[in-house]
Amino acid sequence: MPGAYIVGEGNDGTGKSTQIDLLATFIREEYGAEVLVLHEPDGCPISSEIRQIIKNGSLERDATTNLLLITASRHETWFRDAVPVLERGGVVLSARNELSSEIYQGVAEGLGVEHVREVTRMFMDERYMNPDLTVIFTLDDEIRRARIAARGELQNPDTFESRGDEFQKLLNKGYAEIANKRSLPTIDAGQSIDDVQQRFRDLATKALANSGFIKA
Ligand code: TYD
After folding, report:
1. Rounded to whole angstroms, how far apart are CA atoms 136 and 7?
2. Which residue has the least CA distance to atom 23 on ligand 1?
3. Is any ligand 1 atom within 6 A of the Cβ of residue 51?
């Protein structure tokens, strides 16, 4: 499949969405490419509905149900919206992908990383499982929490952001370990938005060249 698939990952409050949106504008302007921006577990209408359920903590369920709901959400948006863009030679930029399930459901909720990958593989394709680039945004936990508090999201007790310290520590540790183990590039999101964007663009440009999307 032609096109390119680039993912920005990291804990809540690391600025992934801002950086993905800026990168989308850059790629559109620089290369005149069609760019689709995704924010998992959001997406096409049914994925958006599933996201509302996922974010509603008053609906009791276990980690497996979270994984299955999120997998259903990504399955629909990927095959319905993203694959056609890739087939037309466009670029898909996504805030989060299955790596979030590995960390949130696999590590922090205890299902195990391998189990999460296995389940995901059953319903997704190879292209989805192997992005051209995955960048992990990291941020000092105090700054990260202050940013989330400023967004007012901690007042909503239904989101993963409001889980306790131990949960957040597991997420941060999970991201650090997977970045290390798989040699995924990380960007310190504590720098200015411009500096973070510059580094993200550099990595994306290299990945686009490596995948043959642009000439190096
Ligand atoms: P949302 O507000 O949609 O996204 P974000 O915080 O990335 O801006 O919240 C979605 C929540 O779902 C977020 O706390 C991370 C969590 N999540 C998982 O637990 N597993 C997953 O696979 C994904 C994609 C998200």
Report:
1. 9
2. 100
3. yes
Cβ of residue 41 lying under 6 Å from some atom of ligand 1 = yes
Backbone angles phi, psi at 176, to 5 degrees: -65, -40
Write down the pLDDT at residue 70. Answer: 98
Task: Answer whether 67 contacts ligand 1 (Cβ < 6 A).
Answer: no
Tokens representing residue 141 in the block: 């936990």
Tokens of 183: 């040699």
Chain segment 46-91, per-residue pLDDT in tens = 999 999 999 988 899 999 999 999 999 999 999 999 999 999 999 9
**Token pair 């087939």 is at which residue?**
87
Residue 52, pLDDT score: 95
Among 104, 109, 161, residue to substitute to test ligand 1 (most atoms within 8 Å of Cβ): 104
Name residue 49's amino acid: E
- End-to-end, the C-alpha distance of the chain in Å comes to 20
Query: Does the predicted TM-score (pTM) go above 0.90?
Result: yes
Percentage helix, strand, coil for the chain under 3-state DSSP, each rounded to 5:
60, 10, 30
DSSP class of residue 168 equals H
